[in-house]
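Holo model, DGJ. Inputs:
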Amino acid sequence: MSVPLPVSLPSAPAEFVVLNSRRSTLVLEAHADEAPLWRYWGPRLPDGARPDAPLRDTRPLPSFMLDFDQPLTLVPTFGVGWFGQSALLAHRDGLSFAQAITACEVEWITPQRAVRLRLTDAVAQLRLDVTLALDDASDVLVASTTLTNLGDGVLDVQWLAALTLPLPGRCDTVRSYAGQHVHEFLLQTDPLSRSVWRRENRRGRTSHDCFPGAVVTTPGATDDAGLVYGAHLAWSGNHQQSIEWLHDGQYQWQLGEWLAPGEGRLAPGATLHTPELVATLSNAGYNGLAANFHTELRSRLNWPGGTMKPRPVHLNTWEGFYFDVHPGPVKELATAAAAVGIERFVLDDGWFHQRHHDRAALGDWWPDESKFPNGLGDLVAHVNGLGMEFGLWFEPEMVNPDSELFRSHPDWALQIDGRPLITGRNQLVLDISRPEASDYLFGKLDALLTELPIRYIKWDHNRDLTTAGLADGRAGYRAQVHAAYALFARLRAAHPEVEIESCSGGGGRIDFAVLRHTHRVWTSDCIDALSRVDIQRGYLQFFPPEVMGAHVGTAPAHTTGRTQGMAFRAAVALPGHLGVELDVRHLNQADRNELAGWIALYKQLRERLHHGRVWQGQTADGVVWQLHGDEAATDLTLLAYRIKPSTHRYTPAVRLPMLLADARYLVQELQPAGAHGAAHHTSAPLFEQLRGAGVEMAGAWLAEAGLPLPRALAETACIVQLRRL
Ligand code: DGJ
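Output:
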């Protein structure tokens, strides 16, 4: 064994790699013989602004430290001088446990915007290709890493970050989202400190519990002001992220796929691709950050025909009928639905072979012979005849032990030799990475989509993965996610006119990767409007409203037992992709009329609600609001929700700082035809005028002093349109 000499440490001259977008800049210090050093990721610097000196020239060595300074790099590695969390953990059969980049090549894809860093470790015999693309308009950085095993033996990878990001030391808080079934996007606010902050998900899907992303804030950041950073891992499986304090006072933030043991085993020449990391920053607070994420997500959506058509109003049968779907009542419901303005009728669970409860039938994707002896054609024709599209529910990745499919192919379930199968909601997960299993599923769905004009699939996924072993005994979490993406893609290719909804017991699979294949998410199984205010608020930090499934549910709500009036239920659902999830046949005439009025209002507003910006905020007195409008703030719709009884004698005004100070606006309260909303307000002359022809108001006044709100009961909404004059 040769004794290495310290002279082999990197010493090549510095080259600065600078990426700019409209409002952000990223600077790396590249040396030909080591990984690029992070110099900056923050608000836009003027063109030509560069560090004055190489980083190490600015950092005298502290006492009792290594004699070679190792700052944060794009890919910090373990064992050769970096003591923080590394971007890579790997070994070869227990050996070769340390890595350090020995060569760095900078390959520009688009000058100033997109670059690939080819980073080779000649000793560990591997290469990391890190791709960074910064979008000018949205300030969103999309990054990913590909690891190639250049050695002639197997490389076992335990962890590979999609990217390591620097965060300035003045960041003090991280806002992430926890949750559970019927309570997604539960905001969790943690202080940053010298302790590592970490969130991990090993449930095999994006999960309700741990959203793969977070927002990091600097002191004083608010909804509309202050520097905030955000990142999201576009991935529908296991994931981990951590934020760690470093000794130069900054933090490093890593996000990546959490690999189960053995999932990162690379044969010679093999590669491991990380999911994409989507990261951005804004000097305009949480709302500025949300706008960046929304722009990026919109660019990913793959609409039938290339553009989004106005989001059709849904009727989803689930909470109206549950499993009890019979052609007669379903047709009656369709007729009643069409009469209130529904445009797409979605037949949820319960329609397929022997599916009468949740204990049987998943996998047997043909119409139940007792309910639909002649198939679904008659029902689809009835729905189409009423002018509505027809949509159908599937849960392709699942199988009930009590099903024809499982009886024929028990080996198709994910399983581990010698371990009992663990059911969840009485079901098992199919190993869809088996070509015969995915071919079977494709065949069944394709047959129905070919036979009938089905234009929409609600694609569900109702359990976490356990004993997720593949046929050869290896862990199958990662394979399962890739196989699901492939199945989505295959169906979309065969039926490009079909839209897909990503549902997973509500919001268990909401992420930027699944939304490359799908067009709507079912945000939550909780349709209680009060709970939904919070859930949708968290959701909107990352995702735009037009893909947010939002339904008017029953009163009382099935998942909470709470009762809210039709107006509040409808107003909370209104800004999303609106739907109705109740048995319209049983509504009294007044409620039916009111629902029809809300649907008509939605149709009038949807173009405005589903394009452009969303700003969110709250007053000190229990009012939570969101404002939808164009970037130039000329045409806006405010939805103000009173979620708690007022504790103030006079309702505080809503400040709208995004309005143009030198413009005048016509402000008008919007009410659907047939609404009973007036009863919830104590009126005053201004509000009468707002309800009538509207009131002209100064942008500067609304921005700073605010818009007065009527005094209202809890669980009511006020919708106001502001148009620049
Ligand atoms: C869970 C979904 O979130 C519900 O909307 C419904 O589709 C059921 N599954 C059906 O089993």
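The radius of gyration is 27 Å. The chain has a mean pLDDT of 96.
Archived with the compound record.
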